[in-house]
């Protein structure tokens, strides 16, 4: 099961990166998000899986596809050739992120002391709410403030004559 | 239950699991097929005309036009399968499945009857067992990916009308999803849980439609937007953009797109019944028998399916700016206000 979902995620991501057609690339992104949702399910976190599908597959990619359809009716013009510095910069950024992720996994305490066998109870909405509003309240509020600032910025940029 | 299982040499649990899969897939599909008949006869009734009644079974029986269903099915199978030259072939083929699969999946979480206790075993009347952690988030998630069928169909047809329809569908989807989810969250608050079994058990005394009337209004309207039915069928909009996202579709692919719309109606009606009309609860009967509870659920379900058709042939279509106005300036504030009032009441109660 893990391999299936991991393969779905990886193949979706790879075809997203190499797909020339924007709308097909968007659909590949949906596939990737579904793979990640499946991985969440395997981690006994159905709430995260459901939210992943609702927010990312359901809302964000629909919006992205809407904009793609709005801007270019069907056939896209040839994309600009990427500059060498962009290519190397993005490769370096991806490598740094991957290295960081691997380091976090390797330094996890679960690797030294395997968790007790048996199936843990699945996460539910109540536990998620407690985690957000009790343990990580400051981070939650800061993220909310950041999103609000982004929204105000977007409105100001678009509506010059308020 | 045990008798039937022994007949097939299966464990009762295994037998019930298989039976549930069949019920959950065949039930909505059958109802959807019947709805296409109800829609045409019902619209004829509402508009004071006769409607389709010429198809005869074995050249003899008219059966109120029901043989029309079989005639349509045969026609769809035998029609030539046209794909336009400039369409994106792979996506054009994929789109009807992308529309149909989510439509069929949504019903899995709905309890269609009271749980049966027999021989020390509890048989739950929903495909997903209670306490799976997904609860009512599941139909919301499935509903939010349903739009991809329309989007893919619209874009792959390579037709200006179709793309217009697809864009309308995605804009409409994003605008109405927010208000709908907030209305459902108010139900979660009121119940103190988000599993459909809990939500139904909590409505034993009072159906949610009375204390949550505004939430119900918002959810009801959003369901029309989600199922792309008149007065919200902008993706199709036949008087403005030919047939919208399925302009280029014919034969069985068109039938699948159409059928998935009707399955969506069944799922939407089931959600309305579960969230606001007590699911399988029977009014004034404290503990209905299993058969009675299933009958009550099916009766409510069929009634709301009829409401969807009834409204389609009664209310004219909105304009697109009216749709956006209503989504963002009426439905969203109403839903948010409903949620705030519910939260305040819970805070007062402690």
UniProtKB/TrEMBL annotation, chain A:
Catalytic activity: a quinone + NADH + 5 H(+)(in) = a quinol + NAD(+) + 4 H(+)(out)
InterPro entries the UniProt entry points to: NADH_UbQ/plastoQ_OxRdtase_su6, Nuo/plastoQ_OxRdtase_6_NuoJ
Keyword terms: Cell membrane, Membrane, NAD, Quinone, Transmembrane, Transmembrane helix
Enzyme class: translocase
Compartment annotation: Cell membrane
Transmembrane segments: 29-48, 53-73, 85-106, 137-158
Record Pfam families: Oxidored_q3
Membrane topology reported for the UniProt record: Multi-pass membrane protein
Entry's Gene Ontology molecular function annotations: NADH dehydrogenase (ubiquinone) activity; quinone binding
Chief localization: membrane
Keyword NAD in annotation: yes
EC number: 7.1.1.-
Gene Ontology cellular-component terms listed: plasma membrane
Keyword Nucleotide-binding included in the entry's annotation: no
Family classification: Belongs to the complex I subunit 6 family.
Primary role: NDH-1 shuttles electrons from NADH, via FMN and iron-sulfur (Fe-S) centers, to quinones in the respiratory chain. Couples the redox reaction to proton translocation (for every two electrons transferred, four hydrogen ions are translocated across the cytoplasmic membrane), and thus conserves the redox energy in a proton gradient.
Stated name of the protein: NADH-quinone oxidoreductase subunit J
The organism of origin for this protein: Mesoterricola silvestris
Automatic annotation (TrEMBL), chain B:
Quaternary structure (record): NDH-1 is composed of 14 different subunits. Subunits NuoA, H, J, K, L, M, N constitute the membrane sector of the complex.
Keywords of this entry: Cell membrane, Membrane, NAD, Quinone, Translocase, Transmembrane, Transmembrane helix, Ubiquinone
Enzyme class: translocase
Gene name of this polypeptide: nuoH_1
Identification of the protein by name: NADH-quinone oxidoreductase subunit H
Subcellular location: Cell membrane; Membrane
Function, as annotated: NDH-1 shuttles electrons from NADH, via FMN and iron-sulfur (Fe-S) centers, to quinones in the respiratory chain. The immediate electron acceptor for the enzyme in this species is believed to be ubiquinone. Couples the redox reaction to proton translocation (for every two electrons transferred, four hydrogen ions are translocated across the cytoplasmic membrane), and thus conserves the redox energy in a proton gradient. This subunit may bind ubiquinone.
One GO CC term on file: plasma membrane
Recorded topology in the membrane: Multi-pass membrane protein
Family listed: Belongs to the complex I subunit 1 family.
UniProt-listed InterPro entries: NADH_UbQ_OxRdtase_su1/FPO (IPR001694), NADH_UbQ_OxRdtase_su1_CS (IPR018086)
Annotated TM spans: 15-38, 91-113, 133-155, 176-193, 205-225, 262-280, 292-311, 323-347
Source domain of life: Bacteria
GO terms of molecular function: NADH dehydrogenase activity; oxidoreductase activity, acting on NAD(P)H, quinone or similar compound as acceptor; quinone binding
PROSITE patterns per record: COMPLEX1_ND1_2
EC number from the UniProt entry: 7.1.1.-
Pfam families, per the entry: NADHdh (PF00146)
GO biological process terms on file: aerobic respiration
Reactions catalysed, as given in the entry: a quinone + NADH + 5 H(+)(in) = a quinol + NAD(+) + 4 H(+)(out)
Entry coiled-coil feature ranges: none
Keyword Repeat: no
């Amino acid at each position: 099961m893990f391999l299936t979902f991991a393969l779905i995620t990886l193949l979706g991501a790879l075809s997203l990166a190499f797909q020339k057609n924007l709308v097909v690339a968007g659909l590949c992104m949906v596939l990737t998000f579904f793979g990640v949702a499946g991985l969440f399910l395997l981690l006994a976190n159905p709430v995260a899986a459901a939210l992943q599908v609702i927010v990312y597959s359901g809302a964000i990619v629909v919006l992205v596809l809407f904009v793609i359809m709005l801007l270019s009716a069907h056939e896209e013009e040839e994309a600009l050739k990427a500059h060498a510095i962009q290519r190397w910069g993005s490769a370096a950024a991806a490598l740094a992120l991957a290295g960081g992720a691997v380091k976090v996994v390797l330094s996890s305490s679960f690797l030294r002391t395997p968790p007790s066998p048996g199936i843990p109870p699945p996460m539910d909405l109540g536990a998620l709410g407690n985690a957000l509003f009790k343990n990580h309240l400051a981070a939650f509020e800061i993220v909310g403030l950041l999103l609000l600032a982004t929204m105000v910025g977007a409105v100001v940029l678009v509506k010059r004559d308020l | 239950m045990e008798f039937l299982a022994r007949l097939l040499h299966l464990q009762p649990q295994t037998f019930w699991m298989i039976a549930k899969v069949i019920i959950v897939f065949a039930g909505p599909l059958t109802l959807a097929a019947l709805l296409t008949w109800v829609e045409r006869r019902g619209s004829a009734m509402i508009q004071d005309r006769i409607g389709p009644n010429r198809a005869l079974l074995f050249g003899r029986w008219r059966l109120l036009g029901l043989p029309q269903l079989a005639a349509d099915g045969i026609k769809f199978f035998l029609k030539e399968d046209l794909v336009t030259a400039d369409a994106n072939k792979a996506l054009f083929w994929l789109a009807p499945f992308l529309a149909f699969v989510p439509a069929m999946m949504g019903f899995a979480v709905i309890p269609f009857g009271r749980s049966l206790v027999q021989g020390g075993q509890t048989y739950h009347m929903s495909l997903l067992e209670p306490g799976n952690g997904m609860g009512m988030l599941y139909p919301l998630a499935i509903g939010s990916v349903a739009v991809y069928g329309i989007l893919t169909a619209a874009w792959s047809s390579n037709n200006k009308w179709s793309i217009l329809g697809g864009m309308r569908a995605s804009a409409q989807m994003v605008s109405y999803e927010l208000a709908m989810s907030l209305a459902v969250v108010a139900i979660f608050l009121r119940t103190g849980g988000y599993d459909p079994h809990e939500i139904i058990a909590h409505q034993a005394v009072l159906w949610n439609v009375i204390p949550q009337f505004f939430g119900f209004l918002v959810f009801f309207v959003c369901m029309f937007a989600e199922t792309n039915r008149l007065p919200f069928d902008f993706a199709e909009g036949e008087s403005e953009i030919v047939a919208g996202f399925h302009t280029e579709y014919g034969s069985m692919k068109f039938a699948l797109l159409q059928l998935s719309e009707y399955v969506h109606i069944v799922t939407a009606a089931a959600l309305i019944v579960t969230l606001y009309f007590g699911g399988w609860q029977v009014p004034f009967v404290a503990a209905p028998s299993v058969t009675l509870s299933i009958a009550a659920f099916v009766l409510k379900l069929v009634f709301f399916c009829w409401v969807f058709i009834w409204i389609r042939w009664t209310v004219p279509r909105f304009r697109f700016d009216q749709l956006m106005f209503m989504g963002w300036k009426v439905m969203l504030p109403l839903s948010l206000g409903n949620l705030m009032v519910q939260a305040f009441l819970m805070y007062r109660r402690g």
